Amino acid sequence: MLQLQDIQAAATRLQGQVLDTPCVESKTLSQIVGAQVFLKFENLQFTASFKERGACNKLSQLTEAERARGVIAMSAGNHAQGVAYHAQRLGMHAVIVMPRFTPGVKVERTRGFGAEVVLFGDTLEAARAHAYRLAEERGLTFVHPYDDADIAAGQGTVALEMLAEQPDLETLVIAIGGGGLLAGIATAAKALKPSIEIIGVQTARFPAMVNAIKGTQHEQGSSTIAEGIAVGQPGKITQEIIARLADDLLLVREGDIEQAVLMLLEIEKTLVEGAGAAGLAALVRHPERFKGKKVGLVLSGGNIDPLLLAAIIERGMVRSGRLARIKVSARDVPGVLAQITATVAAAGANIDEVHHQRAFTMLAAQNVEIELVLQTRGKDHVQQVLEALRTAGMQADLM
User: Fold this and answer.
1) DSSP structural state of residue 365
2) What is the model's pTM?
3) Distance between alpha carbon 57 and the CA centroid of its chain, in Å?
4) Helix or strand or coil: residue 260?
5) Alpha-carbon separation of residue 335 from 330, 339, 345, 359 (angstroms)
6) What tens digit of pLDDT does each residue of 337-363 get?
7) Amino acid 313: pLDDT
């Protein structure tokens, strides 16, 4: 059974091997969600994830014979990078099996740490089964991403650092994939401060741990922007610890995670992946649950695909009204497009896209329909633009 002493021993092993990342208050986020929010910046680790804590702790304890044979891991990315980096640093060969859907940025970074990357299967389960086969065939030591006491002990060092820096924390809100991070943190935090509240968070699309512990039957999805916690089967070791020590488990939606990623980017100027934003997403989704409390969040990773980040930013701008699509109907006469654009400009909005439609419309033949995508200051500003167009004699509506 995982104990505080195991986590303290892991912290000693990790000294000088991983960063003691800052844990500081975000005054702006605190004002927004109504709780005092402290952020643990694990996205500042060398591999941009807390995962290297567990990987380093595990690899540091291998025998000379195990080191000589090498290690193998299965991961969608962050565990892969942690194992690959510390294996390289400790002089071991590492084989990493990754599902075919893994973002390219994670694949290339893992290869950059000298690992042999094997892409196999469309799910984590398929990749895991293949990794076990390769481990047996080649005599490699399998390094599990979460269901391993040494891995969980390494991850639990996050809690030691958080409570050392912010001893008054009342609640920790931690993302759950397979459960290694939450199991380690819960073990350390409850031992040091029994009164502390431990809350786990899963995406509604991958609620395996919630179903296993609460006995619910939430449907499993096939994809999520939080691919780092897209785990279909919770760990046995981690499930037992979480069932015993976690005070509650919450689910968040994809839109909550997108919003949290964008809030951290805009407010804290820090880049996190979907899984790393799950804790903040829980505060956004369930503000009353945390109102007035001192809450610690772990920004667990920052490895996000640039194309996904671009999509999240654009979708966030749409939700806030800073990017709006409107439809303008007017008489099809020379200069009407210039009049529309001049009216929009006078109202202080910028035109991002224009689609001039004559054929595919139900308007009278002498009329034209123009679709505009606008950059605005927000939803109130969009309404001001629409009113300006209507005052100019045109029909204008949001699409």
Assistant:
1) T
2) 0.89
3) 24
4) helix
5) 11, 6, 15, 19
6) 899 999 999 999 999 999 876 665 555
7) 92
